[in-house]
Amino acid sequence: MAHEVPKVVHQWNVTKGDGFDSLKYSEQPLPELGDSQVLVKCSDGAGTVVAIGKHVRRFAPGDRVVTSFFQDYAGGPVQPTAYTSALGGALDGTLRTYGAFNEQGLVRVPSSLSSLEAATLSCAGVTAWSALFGLSDYRVNAGQWVLTQGTGGVSVFALQFAKAVGARVIATTGSSDKVKFLQDLGADHVLNYKEDVEWGATAKKLTGGIGVHHVVEVSGPVSMAQSLKAIKIDGVIDIIGYLGGSTEDQPGFSDSFKYRCIVRPIGVGPRILLEDLCRAIEANPEKLRPVIDPKVFRLDQLQEACEYQWSGQHKGKVCIEIS
């Protein structure tokens, strides 16, 4: 099916300013398409191919695709060049109506997913997948214990992935209103970290004193001490981010030595892991369907969407629908 190539793009850019006020919405001319690039009608990270450069062989107009976070990192050990190809960092991101991407930085969308659902895979989805399955000798298996934190995109994906392979999940939350949400997703135990400040020790007790095999750590220094108390010897703490902020009293090198665990920072993941994730979803579409917060925002509502996510009210991924 032929697609009309537009002349302009509506997009958001980060400019000078403080906080979300630095985000500016504008209309810009459509950039010229390179020989190895694919023009995609976007939906916050996923969309439909509109046109292709003369050297493109992997895609054709009409194909549905999702962007790989690193446009120049297909697989293998991470190289410095990967970080110079990060969307939304070194390269322009996907909050625009159309975008030109290198064909090596795109993956086909699982047929069961909408573009909005597929858009959740390129960052949150593949990050969670990388945490649980990206380290070959420490992949999560049936019967093991996984600890997730909160109800954000990465944590919800990690819960789903762990349950899909038969692992047991302990989830934490600071809101009693979100307990049932986590239980409905399959969490075996839900701990409220505001009510139980020693939730790490509690989590370890729930495993019979052995400890959890994987902690998907999204809060950072403020929760790391409890994550260490929860982890088993030779377990893996996958550090995703610092949502909880920083603190002066935070664990250091000696603590990982004390608890005899692997502390591993996760930088999203390469294209090959995104392809693995998409194949897994294709084989288990309902079990692995992305969880999207009921409140979906339009492209021109980006600042409101950011404020909503920052408030912590969301359950799953906060998405931008680009019409």
Automatic annotation (TrEMBL):
Ranges in a coiled coil:
none
- Which stretches make up the Enoyl reductase (ER) domain? 19-320
Q: Where is the signal peptide?
A: none
Q: Could you tell me which InterPro entries the record lists for this protein?
A: ADH-like_C (IPR013149), ADH-like_N (IPR013154), ER (IPR020843), GroES-like_sf (IPR011032), NAD(P)-bd_dom_sf (IPR036291), Zinc_ADH-like (IPR052711)
Q: Which CDD domains match?
A: MDR7
- What does the record give under GO molecular function? oxidoreductase activity
| Pfam families (UniProt xref) | ADH_N (PF08240), ADH_zinc_N (PF00107)
Segments traversing the membrane: none
Under SUPFAM superfamilies, the record lists: GroES-like (SSF50129), NAD(P)-binding Rossmann-fold domains (SSF51735)
Tree of life domain: Eukaryota
Q: What is this protein called?
A: Alcohol dehydrogenase
What species is this protein from? Answer: Trichoderma arundinaceum
